[in-house]
C-alpha cells in the first residue's frame, strides 16, 4: 500500500459537474490550496454529467411545469419556479466570470440559445397553462414569456408539434426565447481543464473504497487504483463527495451521524434520439409537457433540441424504469447495500406512501415499444419510428429522508449533507442538479468554511455580483443581470 502522509487541503471525489464547480470556486477563492480529484472511471463527465445522460435544459423553470403546481384553490404556486430560476442565474454569473477571465473557452462550447416551451393538450390542461402564464406574467425572471392557444402561432414556434394533430384538439403553449441548452459534459471537461492548468491533480481510475476520520480532524481516503486495484491512501483536511449515485454509500462509510436516516431510491430511464437533419431542422426548442399521474417530476415528458459537440439532435423522453444500480456503471447490489437499520423505517414508509409511483414504474417497464413511441407522437404526431433510436439515460437516485410526521419522505431534488465540523460534505439527489451546481456548491462553502466567509466575500461578490440577493425583488437588477450574462455567454436575454 502506498500512502501520502502530508495532508492535502481538499479531496474531491467524483469527476462530475459538482466536483468541477466546487474545485473552480475554491481555486478562485484560495489559489494556494492543494486540491486533488479522484474519479473511478477513465474520464470525467461519464455518468450524470454526460450530455446524453441528462436533459441539459439549463433548468430555469421557464418550461418545466412540475415547478408550478396547481393548488387546491385552483391558483398556481410559482415559489419553486422562482427559486430554481434564481439559482440558475447564479450559475450563469459564475460561468460568465470564468469566460471573461479566459478560464473557460468560448461559451458556445457548452451553452446555446434554445427557446423553452410548455405544451399541453386537453381543455383542463389548457386552462392550467393559461393560469400559469398569468401567474408568471410580469415577473422579472420570466420576462418575454408568451402564451397562445392558437394553432398557427404554435406552429410558428415549433412546426413539428402540429402536422397530424386532430384539428378539434384543444392545445396551448408558452414560448420564451431566453431558454438555453447546456452541454454539461463539455462544461465539466472545460472546468477540469482550467483546474489542471491551475495545479489541481486529476486522478482517473481511482476508486474511493473508504473514508475514515482521523484524530487530528482530517480524513484518510482509501483508494483502489487502476485495473489491479492497487491500494493507496491520502489524507485530506476537507473531503467533498460528489460521486452522484455513489455518494450515499461513501457518506455511510464515513460514519458521520448526519447521514443517518438517509436512503436512496434509484430510477433509471431511456430516451429516444434522432440525428436525422431533416427531422432536427423542424424542431428547434425544448418542449416540456405534463407528467403522468404518479410519475416522478424527473419523468416529465419533453422533446428537446440538444447541441453536443456543435451538432444538433433531438431527444424525447424520459421513459422511466427501475434498476437497483446507483450508477450506470454501478452494481446490482447498490440498493441493497445502502439499506441500514437507521434508514430502513423511512424507506418502508416511503414505499407505502408512493404506491402510485410504483404503479407508474411497473407500467413503464411493461410498456411496449409501440406504446412508448405513441408517447412521442403526442408531441410530434407524424414522427416516424425509422428516424429514432433508443439511448439509456443516466441513473438517478432520489433522496429518502426521515420525517417526523410521515416517518419518511421521497424528496425530488438535491440535499447537501455536511458533518458538524464541516470537514466533509456530500451531495445526494438529482434534478435540477447540474443547472444549479454553483448555488449548491456555495451552500457547501458556506456550511464547511464559515471562518472564511468574511475573507472570501469580496471575491465572491466580484465573481457573482448578486450573491446573497434576490433578483425577483428587483426588476431593474434582474433585467441588468440577465442581460449582462446573456451578452457574456452569447445567448438571448
From TrEMBL:
Could you say which EC number(s) this protein's record lists? 1.1.5.4
Source domain of life = Bacteria
Query: Which Gene3D superfamilies does the record associate with it?
Result: D-Amino Acid Oxidase, subunit A, domain 2 (3.30.9.10), FAD/NAD(P)-binding domain (3.50.50.60)
Query: Pathway listed for it?
Result: Carbohydrate metabolism; tricarboxylic acid cycle; oxaloacetate from (S)-malate (quinone route): step 1/1
Cofactor(s) for this protein?
FAD
Alphabetic keyword roster: FAD, Flavoprotein, Oxidoreductase, Tricarboxylic acid cycle
* Pfam families in the record: Mqo (PF06039)
From the UniProt record, list the reaction(s) this protein catalyses.
(S)-malate + a quinone = a quinol + oxaloacetate
Q: What's this protein's family per the entry?
A: Belongs to the MQO family.
Name of protein: Probable malate:quinone oxidoreductase
This protein's species is Frondihabitans cladoniiphilus
Amino acid at each position: 500500500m502506498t500512502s501520502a502522509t502530508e495532508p492535502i487541503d481538499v479531496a474531491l471525489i467524483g469527476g462530475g459537474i459538482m466536483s468541477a464547480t466546487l474545485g473552480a470556486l475554491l481555486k478562485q477563492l484560495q489559489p494556494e490550496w492543494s486540491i486533488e480529484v479522484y474519479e473511478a472511471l477513465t474520464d470525467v463527465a461519464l455518468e450524470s454529467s454526460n450530455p446524453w445522460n441528462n436533459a441539459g435544459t439549463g433548468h430555469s423553470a421557464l418550461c418545466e411545469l412540475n415547478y408550478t403546481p396547481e393548488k387546491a384553490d385552483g391558483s398556481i404556486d410559482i415559489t419553486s419556479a422562482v427559486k430554481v430560476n434564481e439559482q440558475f442565474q447564479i450559475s450563469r454569473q459564475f460561468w460568465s466570470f470564468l469566460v471573461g477571465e479566459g478560464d473557460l473557452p468560448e461559451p458556445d462550447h457548452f451553452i446555446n440559445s434554445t427557446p423553452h416551451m410548455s405544451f399541453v393538450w386537453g381543455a383542463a390542461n389548457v386552462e392550467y397553462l393559461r393560469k400559469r402564464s398569468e401567474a408568471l406574467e410580469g415577473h422579472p425572471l420570466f420576462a418575454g414569456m408568451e402564451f397562445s392557444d392558437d394553432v398557427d402561432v404554435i406552429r410558428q414556434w415549433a412546426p413539428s408539434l402540429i402536422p397530424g394533430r386532430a384539428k378539434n384538439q384543444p392545445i396551448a403553449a408558452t414560448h420564451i426565447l431566453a431558454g438555453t441548452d447546456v452541454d454539461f459534459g463539455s462544461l465539466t471537461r472545460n472546468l477540469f481543464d482550467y483546474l489542471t492548468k491551475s495545479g489541481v491533480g486529476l486522478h482517473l481510475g481511482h476508486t474511493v473504497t473508504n473514508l475514515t476520520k482521523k484524530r487530528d480532524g482530517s480524513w484518510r481516503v482509501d483508494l483502489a487504483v487502476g485495473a489491479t486495484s492497487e491500494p493507496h491512501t491520502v489524507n485530506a483536511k476537507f473531503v467533498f463527495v460528489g460521486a452522484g449515485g455513489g455518494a450515499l454509500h461513501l457518506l455511510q462509510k464515513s460514519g458521520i451521524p448526519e447521514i443517518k436516516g438517509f436512503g436512496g431510491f434509484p430510477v433509471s430511464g431511456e430516451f429516444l434520439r434522432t440525428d436525422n437533419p431533416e427531422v432536427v431542422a423542424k424542431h428547434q426548442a425544448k418542449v416540456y409537457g405534463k407528467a403522468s399521474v404518479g410519475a416522478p417530476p424527473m419523468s416529465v415528458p419533453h422533446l428537446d433540441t440538444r447541441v453536443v459537440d456543435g451538432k444538433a439532435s433531438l431527444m424525447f423522453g424520459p421513459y422511466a424504469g427501475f434498476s437497483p444500480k446507483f450508477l450506470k456503471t454501478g452494481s446490482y447490489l447498490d440498493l441493497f447495500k445502502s439499506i441500514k437499520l437507521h434508514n430502513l423505517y423511512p424507506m418502508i414508509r416511503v414505499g407505502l406512501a408512493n404506491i402510485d409511483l410504483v404503479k407508474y414504474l411497473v407500467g413503464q417497464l411493461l410498456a411496449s415499444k409501440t406504446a412508448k413511441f405513441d408517447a412521442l407522437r403526442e408531441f410530434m404526431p407524424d414522427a416516424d419510428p425509422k428516424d429514432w433510436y433508443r439511448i439509456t439515460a443516466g441513473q438517478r437516485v432520489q433522496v429518502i429522508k426521515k420525517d417526523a410526521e410521515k416517518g419518511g419522505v421521497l424528496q425530488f431534488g438535491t440535499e447537501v449533507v455536511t458533518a458538524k465540523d464541516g470537514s466533509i460534505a456530500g451531495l445526494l439527489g438529482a434534478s435540477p442538479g447540474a443547472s444549479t451546481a454553483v448555488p449548491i456548491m456555495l451552500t457547501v462553502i458556506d456550511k464547511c468554511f464559515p471562518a472564511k466567509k468574511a475573507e472570501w466575500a469580496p471575491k465572491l461578490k466580484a465573481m457573482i455580483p448578486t450573491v446573497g440577493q434576490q433578483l425577483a425583488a428587483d426588476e431593474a437588477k434582474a433585467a441588468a443581470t440577465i442581460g449582462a450574462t446573456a451578452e457574456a455567454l452569447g445567448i438571448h436575454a
